[in-house]
Write a structure and sequence with these properties.
The protein has 307 residues and is an alpha+beta fold. The chain contains seven helices and twelve strands. A hairpin with an 8-residue loop joins β5 (146-147) and β6 (156-157).
C-alpha cells in the first residue's frame, strides 16, 4: 500500500515543483538589478579583502624600493540561513476526494510567491535599515563618518545624503559623491553608467519627472534649461522599500551594483521535495531554500532619508 501511495504523491511532485518555481520567478525581482549573486556551499561566506594599490610614486634612476603594502578591508561574515514552507494532505483527504492533491496546486504556487517575497523583503531591508544598522566599519551603512580604512581612521567619508529627492538635491548628491567616493587607498571611484536611483513607489512620479520628463529641458522651471539628468541613471522602483513593508516612502538611494558590495549568497535556491509520513498518514510537500545576504562595504552607494 505504501508504494501505491508513494506513486500517488509523486505524481504531483513535479507539478508542484514547476508551479513553485514558476511563481517564484514570474515577476521581476528588483534585488537582481542591484546585487551580486554568488553560489557557495560553505556554512559561512567571509569577505575580508585587501585594498587595491595606491598612486604610483616617483623613483630616481638606479633606486631600489617602491614596494607598496595593501590595506586590509573591514571583514564581514555571511551566515547561511534556512527557510521553508510546507503543505500537508492527509490520506483521508486523498482517499475521499480524488482531486485533493490537484486542489493544492494553488498552495504550491503560493509557496513560490512566498519565497520570492522573502528574498525581496530581505534584500530591501539591507537598504532601508542602512540608516540605523552598522556596516562592517562600525558606522551606519549610510553615515557621514566612515573611516578611510582600518589604518587611517582619522580621514572620514560621507555617504549620507540629505533632503527630499529633487533635481537640485540630485545635483548636491553628485557633488557630495565626487568629494567622498574613494577607495581604501584614496583613489577616486568614478561613478559608472550602471548607477541606479532606487526608490519606493511613492517617489515614482518625482523621480520620473527629474530623470525622464522633457528630456531636453530641466523640469519644473521657467528657464527651460537643458535637463542634464535625462538618461543618466537607471531607475529601480522597488515596492519593498515602502513604509507599508517596513521601509520609508521618502528615502532614496544611489546604488552602484558593479562594485559587488551588495550580495546574496545561495547555498540552495528555492526547490521542492516531498515524502510520505506513514505514522501520521500525510503526504507532505516542502519548499526549501538556504541563503545569506547583506552589504559588506558602505561604498555600495549613497542615500538620503528624504527628510
Amino acid at each position: 500500500m505504501a508504494s501505491i501511495r508513494e506513486k500517488h504523491a509523486q505524481l504531483y511532485t513535479p507539478i508542484y515543483d514547476e508551479l513553485m518555481i514558476r511563481s517564484f520567478a514570474e515577476h521581476e525581482q528588483k534585488h537582481k538589478l542591484l546585487s551580486k549573486e554568488i553560489m557557495d556551499s560553505t556554512k559561512e561566506y567571509k569577505v575580508s579583502g585587501l585594498s587595491t594599490l595606491g598612486r604610483w610614486v616617483s623613483a630616481s634612476e638606479g633606486a631600489t624600493g617602491g614596494y607598496e603594502d595593501p590595506v586590509l578591508d573591514y571583514a564581514k561574515t555571511y551566515t547561511q540561513e534556512k527557510f521553508w514552507d510546507k503543505i500537508e494532505i492527509s490520506f483521508e483527504a486523498a482517499d475521499q476526494d480524488e482531486y485533493a492533491l490537484l486542489k493544492r496546486e494553488g498552495q504550491a504556487s503560493g509557496m513560490g510567491i512566498g519565497a520570492r517575497d522573502l528574498v525581496e523583503a530581505t534584500m530591501a531591508a539591507h537598504l532601508y535599515n542602512g540608516f540605523s544598522v552598522a556596516s562592517p566599519d562600525g558606522q551606519y551603512l549610510f553615515s557621514n563618518s566612515h573611516p578611510k580604512n582600518s589604518e587611517e581612521t582619522g580621514t572620514t567619508y560621507d555617504n549620507l545624503l540629505s533632503g527630499a529627492f529633487s533635481h537640485d538635491k540630485l545635483e548636491d548628491a553628485e557633488a557630495q559623491i565626487a568629494n567622498n567616493f574613494f577607495t581604501l587607498k584614496g583613489i577616486p571611484i568614478l561613478p559608472s553608467e550602471d548607477a541606479y536611483i532606487v526608490y519606493p513607489p511613492a517617489l515614482a512620479g518625482t523621480v520620473d519627472r527629474v530623470l525622464n520628463d522633457r528630456a531636453t529641458e530641466r523640469p519644473d522651471t521657467t528657464q527651460r534649461d537643458f535637463n542634464r539628468y535625462a538618461g543618466r541613471y537607471k531607475q529601480c522602483n522597488w515596492i519593498y522599500l515602502c513604509s507599508q513593508l517596513g521601509g520609508s516612502d521618502t528615502a532614496w538611494y544611489i546604488i552602484y551594483p558593479r562594485l559587488g558590495y551588495f550580495k546574496i549568497i545561495w547555498n540552495a535556491k528555492p526547490h521542492f521535495t516531498s515524502w510520505i509520513d506513514e505514522d501520521k498518514e500525510f503526504y507532505i510537500f516542502k519548499g526549501r531554500c538556504l541563503f545569506a545576504s547583506g552589504i559588506d562595504n558602505w561604498r555600495v552607494g549613497f542615500a538620503s532619508t528624504g527628510l
